[in-house]
Amino acid sequence: MKLTKHISILFLVLATSIASAQVKFEAKVSKKKLGVNERLRIDFEMNQDGDNFVPPSFKDFTVVGGPNTSLMNSYANGKKTYSKTYSYFLAPKKRGTFTIKQATIEIDGETYKTFPITVTVTAAVDRPNGAPDASDIASDNIHLVAEVSNSNPYLNEAITVVYKLYVSKETGVSGWSEKDSPRYNDFWNQNIEVKGFPTQRGQYKGEDYRYVVVRKTVLYPQKTGKLKLEPLVLEVMVEVPTGRANIFGQQMMTQVPQTVTAGSRTINVKQLPEEGKPSDFKGAVGDFDFNITTTKTQLNATESLQAKVEVTGKGNLKLFELPKLTVPSSLEVYEPEHKENVRTNLSGMRGSISDTYTLVPQYRGKYPVPTISFSYFDLKTESYKRITSDEIVIDVLEGPTAANNSENATVANTKQTVTSNNNTFAFIKTSSNWVSTLNQPFFKSTGFWSMLLLPFLAIPLAIVIRRKKDERDADVTGNRIRKADRLAKKYLGAAKKALGQKEAFYEALERALHNYLKAKLNIETSDFNKEKIENLLGERQIEENVVSDFISILENCELARYTPITQVTMQNDYDKAAKTISLIDKQMR
Questions:
Q1: Residue 37 and residue 119 in one domain
Q2: Signal sequence: where (predicted)?
């Protein structure tokens, strides 16, 4: 009996030891000695799935990636193998010797811990010691390049910047996001939509690579001299080989975050030549056609017609003003309606812009519309060109004749005889038709009855007015709308007075928007930034499209310092600002 008892205890101990040996939870690092400019990878591996994983604090490192989780199931000789790994990528904060403490996890109700690992951080190194880790492989096999179509353009000449992400055949990319976007100061810019991100083949420094175009931007420089393009910075999730294969012999990959930048570029912008510059040149650069057309050339007085001043072609269409239409004073002319039909692709802007004037003749006659000239700088010939419109004659068939119409009025040379009148004061009346009112008593007269009944008639009128006032006071929505409109007019009054003066208008508009936010959100001008404004307005339950419109108006105020702005654009920005302020005040909670 005693022997049997000892054998039972021995089997129990062995079973417990075997069960304990089956669970593995350990920490592994990519290297134990690294430079302060290198990254360290640490993996926490287990052979059974667990819960409540708690990593160490990593207080002496900055976590630049992770945790990334990977699973592996394999079968060999009928035996199943399971592996689960939590991976972190660490950047040391300083030189020294540091200990990464224990991580813990619960597996089948038991708590397991890893052993602490000691790592030595040395001075910065040119290349990692030993075999490269995943981060090093990623940095060597992925590159972001900014390809500029022309680094020496003229002022207002279109250039394109295409950002390409090159990836070697040995690695892959599972996604990216913009960490820092260039602001393109001193450039008018527009992004071109990239659809699908198709993979293409190309070469990077003479080696075969795959690449995707991640961004396309068209730029028009607004200043001369050396202008710097800020870099685009991407955060990319890179897939790199681990050096291990799965049960099918395929290379196993692991993911590592990588920050890549295209680097800054310098654009040397040339001044347009002064030699041969026309006096009416307004900054148009490209290849254009110019024309003036009217909807009719014959009509009657007080009827209307439209005259269109139009420029078509390729160039900086949105960045210059059209020539003004001049007409005879006998034609009443209204403010033009500005239209833009412009498409922007990698070659720049193409399409048409026009001002359409409404003309109303007042008198009969023939009225010539003087010719207008349009000048532009032709990039192909690097010279200025001028296009002059044809003269248009408007024939007004019917209507009154103008007294000073030189084409219809004739001057009579015959003299008329002046006849004298002996009664010099004939225009003064010497008799009157006075009627006495003394015999008409006031009592029972029309005035008497009117004054007597007036108070009684005023009572129902006062009741109606009071009811209308009560209804108006009870109309919370209507009062909010009226108050919002008054606020918009109050804050935008100075901007409206400055319409037509670009600098003064946009300064006043920006000040109005800032003052409005200060009044409604209780924040100072020094605290203004787009993110904070979006957050504060979002907290007040303002709709996203209204917040987006408000931010776009602020951006237009900044952009106006570097780009030509038309009267129509200023009016549109003013109207949009008034509408947006009104909507914010209505929706604010």
A1: yes
A2: 1-21
- Write the CATH number for 82: 2.60.40.740
DSSP state at residue 387: E
State the DSSP H helix or E strand holding residue 98, giving kind and residue range, or none if neither: strand 96-100
pLDDT tens figures, 307-335: 999 999 999 999 999 999 988 888 899 99
**pLDDT, tens digit, for every residue of 354-410?**
999 999 998 999 999 889 999 999 999 999 999 999 889 999 998 888 765 444 433
> Side chain identity at 315, as an amino acid letter?
G
Three-state SS at 484: helix
Number of domains composing the chain:
4
> Which residues partner with 191 through β-bridges?
217
Lowest pLDDT segment from 104-118, 360-374, 397-411, 556-570: 397-411
Check: CB of residue 517 under 8 Å from CB of residue 523. Answer: yes
Find the distance separating the first CA and the last CA of the chain, reported in whole Å: 85
Query: Is the dihedral angle over the CA atoms 509, 512, 517, 520 positive or is it negative?
Result: negative
Domain residues for 583?
A: 476-587
Instruction: Confirm whether pTM is higher than 0.70.
Output: no
Instruction: Cite the DSSP H helix spans in 23-159.
Output: 134-141
pLDDT digits (tens, 9 = 90+) for 436-483: 555 566 666 777 777 777 887 788 888 888 887 777 766 655 665 565
Same domain flag for 146 and 261: yes
DSSP string spanning 190-232?
Answer: EEEP--S---EEEEETTEEEEEEEEEEEEEEE-S-EEEEEPPP
- Residue 190 and residue 245 in one domain: yes
| CA gap 548, 527 in Å, rounded | 19
The 3-state secondary structure of 259-308 reads EEECCCEEEEEECCCCCCCCCCCCCCEEEEEEEEEECCCEECCCCCEEEE
Q: Say how far apart CA 164 and CA 387 lie, in whole Å.
A: 41
Q: Which residue has the tokens 């001057």?
A: 411
Q: Is 130 left (phi over 0), alpha (psi -120 to 50) or beta?
A: left
CB-count burial class (<10 Å; 0-12, 13-18, 19+) for 378: middle
Q: What is the pLDDT of residue 461?
A: 81
145 and 242 part of one domain? yes
Listed residues 76, 104, 129: the one ending a domain: 129
Q: Judge whether 170 lies within some domain.
A: yes
Residue 130 identity (one-letter amino acid):
G
User: Across all residues in the chain, what is the average pLDDT?
Assistant: 81
499 and 582 fall within a common domain? yes
CA distance linking residue 85 with residue 103, whole number of Å: 12
| 2-50: pLDDT as tens digits | 555 555 555 554 444 444 457 888 999 988 888 887 888 899 988 888 8
